[in-house]
Amino acid sequence: MFKRTLLVLGAVGGGFLIATAWPGATDALRTRLAQGGFPTFGPAATASPAPTAAAAPKPEEAPRDEPGLVRLTDDQVTKAGIRTDSVKGGRLARHLHVPGTIVPSANNTARIAVKTQGTVAELRKGLGDRVAKGEVVALLDSREIADTKSEYLAARLSAALQKTLYERDQSLWDKRISSEQQYLRSQASYEELKVKVDSARRKLTFLGLNPAEIEALPSLPAAQFERQEIRSPIAGKIVERRVDLGAAVGRDNLETELYSVVNLAQVWVDLSVSPGDLPLTREGQTVTVWTQATDERANGKIVFIGPVLDQNTRAARVVAELPNPEERWRPGSFVTAEIAVSDKPVRTLVPSEAIQTIGGKPTVFVKVEGGFEARPVGVGRSDDGNVEVTSGLEPGDEVVVANSFTLKAELGKSAAED
């Protein structure tokens, strides 16, 4: 009995020693030995091991997206502001961007002035009033006008009387009743008076009277001889009034201008073009003008290119004519102008926003079934807002033209997760 007890204690101690000091033992053997177990022989050694719990199946991996494909729901596309459009042909137009200023057209600007000394008797127009061509805008009292009208009427009466005498002497000479000398003297006097009438008429025209006014002078009351009507030479709007009622005007250091009239149906755009860009400009080129204040746009044409550079800015003056029927473009406004310097047709054209650089290559996102495909493309010429695609796209392909950077970010996020 004592002997058997020693054998059991030895076996347990040996098992514990093997379990702790035998690194090569299997986990099952080490555990069993540590628990005091030991190998058995015979039928017990061949018995089937105790059943263990079945291993849990591994979870299935989610299918991976194809490389370069971004999947977004319709709601995500809407929230991101992603917009697509079909690839099509178009024209590449290159532009020069230059600063400019709206100014009145020199062809549609006039100053209403007097050509004789006098006093302003009436002012019929004020600032901002519209006038028609030939409309009376002021009345002037002038002694010089009265004297010139009287001179004309006197010369006209003398010429009419001398014409009668000349015709009588001509008739008598034809009948050989009077002498030829008398006839020739009457003819010379008549021709001289005709010259005086023409001279007085030209003087009245110079002072501002039109032919109808001159012809009406014989029936004009004497009290109106000093009165002169001042008319506008063009249709437009009064933009400046320089005199007041009763002011003395005329020569000898007196004011001669009464009003300034501008027709704003057409305006000029003064552009400053650098010497390097000057060879690209020519008369007749289309110019698109816009202002940041109102974002209004209009098209005009270059009508003048200055041959001399400005000494201060070292830029050339280029003038474009701009239609302005609604008078939206006000003189003095600062604008930006685009001068079209080239215009060429291309087969495939996409907006510049559609091009993203991915992996050092120009790439566009093409709408395909299931999402958006990042497709490398070859690019050619470009203008201010579009790029020519030389390879990778065909007309009709639907590409992202707005907020494509969102897809680029999503593609980069997917690559980082991989």
TrEMBL record:
It comes from the Bacteria. InterPro entries: Beta-barrel_RND_2, BSH_CzcB-like, CzcB_C, HH_CzcB-like, MFP_Cation_Efflux, RND_pump_MFP. Residues 40-57 have a biased composition (Low complexity). Residues 350-408 form the CzcB-like C-terminal circularly permuted SH3-like domain. Residues 266-340 form the CusB-like beta-barrel domain. Residues 58-67 have a biased composition (Basic and acidic residues). The keyword Protein biosynthesis does not apply. Coiled coil: none annotated. Pfam families: Beta-barrel_RND_2, BSH_CzcB, CzcB_C, HH_CzcB. Residues 40-67 are annotated as: Disordered. Keywords: Transport. Residues 109-253 form the CzcB-like barrel-sandwich hybrid domain. Residues 147-205 form the CzcB-like alpha-helical hairpin domain. Belongs to the membrane fusion protein (MFP) (TC 8.A.1) family. This is Cobalt-zinc-cadmium efflux system membrane fusion protein. The lineage of its organism: Bacteria, Pseudomonadati, Pseudomonadota, Alphaproteobacteria, Hyphomicrobiales.
